[in-house]
Amino acid sequence: MTATAPAPRPAAAASPPPPARPRRPRRGGAGGAALTVLTWAIALVFVSPALWMVLTAFKTEGAAQTDPPTFFFQPTLEQITGVLSADFLPYLGNSLMATLASTALVLVLGTPAAYALSIRPVKRTKDVLFFFISTKMLPVVAVVVPLYVAAAEVSMIDNIWTLVVLYTAMNLPIAVWMMRSFFLEVPSGVIEAARLEGASLPRVLWSVMLPIMAPGVAATALICMIFSWNEFFFAVNLTASQAATLPVYLVGFITSEGLYWAQLAAAATVASLPIVIVGWIAQRQLVRGLSMGAVK
Amino acid sequence: MSAVAAAPARRPSPAEQARRARRAERARGWARRAPLMPALIFTILVTQLPFLFTIFYSLQSWNLLRPGSRRFTGLANYAAVLSDSQFLGAALNTVVITASCVLVSMAVGICLAMLLDRAFLGRGIVRTMLITPFLIIPVATALLWKTNMFDPVFGLVGFVLTPFGLGDVNWVSQYPVVSVVTALVWQWSPFMMLLVLAGLQSQGRDVIEAGQVDGANTWQMFTEITLPHLRRYIELGVLLGSIYVVNTFDTIYMMTQGGPGTASSNLPFYIYQRTFLGFDIGQSAAMGVIVVAGTIVVAMLALRLIFRTFMSDQEAQS
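Predict the joint structure of the above. Result:
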């Protein structure tokens, strides 16, 4: 691409390519060590609010609100067990349901679609891709009114399946684009060979494609889970007591926030932990999912 | 084949043949399209159909609190919305919040990515730590910043800033937009960092070495070689970030409720208030349509960029 243009070509040509070595060698000496210490310090400062949240989750209410803040204290599990024994579990169940069911639905709908847009591309593939991604740019506020009216009409307000359907629609474009970017990397010879040997299309999909595509599909699933788990707008507007998810549960702390910081921190930590772990696992693929497959 | 040629009498007429060929062609086309159809139809039903209804509702006077008042009013809702100073204020806030959040997180993201783009002890751990703010439930992030960070008495921010004489500032009520943007920047910087890092790591080693051979210093290397290379990653980050951040709702809902007054209300939050607290379906729908019109400009730019980035990668592979 044009990005390589600034390279002075004669110089590049004059020096033969160096033998294989780590792409970014460790800078030795005091300078490198100082930079490492600086990087660590900046990273710790940057995540300090999250660390503080986890720390506060292990405090007593008395230690959570002090001036100056308390840094050293006797840790207690009181808050965490308090959260887990209260009404946390129904919300957790709803979150799990909305996340897992919508992700499954996304994969069921998205995998064949991505196949049709990459491996055996249909006519006007570009238009279809364009359409999918453009729905992602439709602000949710532009569709929430009719969705609310429609859901109320068929008594689907406060029903977890309403969220499942909406989260599926929310994640499907990302999933189609992301999986397509993975499928394009599958060598086309593999499929042709299987077809020539007389394997049927479903069989090609199942026993040839899936093993190759599995990492891409898994990464896509993890990305969809993150978005569904954290979604708030639909959850708060289309659910009440029965189908509310964890972000809605956290809203409950907004009234008592002045009083129960430790409990709040414990609830926020416990509610976020599953998805943070999923994100850590998916971190290599995170950038690909967020850029809809454009950046690897 | 030869059997057909040998029996010309039983050969179908050319028109019949053409028709059959067309039919077979069409069947093959549909067979190809079949795997695509469920996803396409689902997406149209759940996203496009409601939007058509939004347009339809936006032409009606309809308030759920006044049953039986529903009637067609033409463009009256649009006129009302566009002369509503609160709507215009929310529109301005949306631009301010989105632009400042995206630009500051991009700057922070570039710095973090530069720090991460070298081998050092614990790099994986640092990277994992740095992406965490993006993963935490945004509602939790907003609560965390509102209470534990920004509280004027017990908050960590006040504690840290006390030596600078800023210990007693009530951030959330005195500077609501700054507070919201701070929480958003914390959340979105990891996103920018990941994109920029991907860009830095795709930079060819030969280019860097060539620069070093030419005697470029670190700053020249950064401005002359690295930044131009990063350009498309930065553009992509800014546009994708804008598309996501423009829809910010949870942070404002949790931190300020759009207040004090409507000082920190953005369009998603204002439309939410009008729909779910005011039950004014007609005007909310008109606002939704206007937001879409505004988004289309940014979205077109983003789409073109994504396509360019995407297609050039494909070409590079083939």
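Chain B has two domains: 1-34, 84-317.
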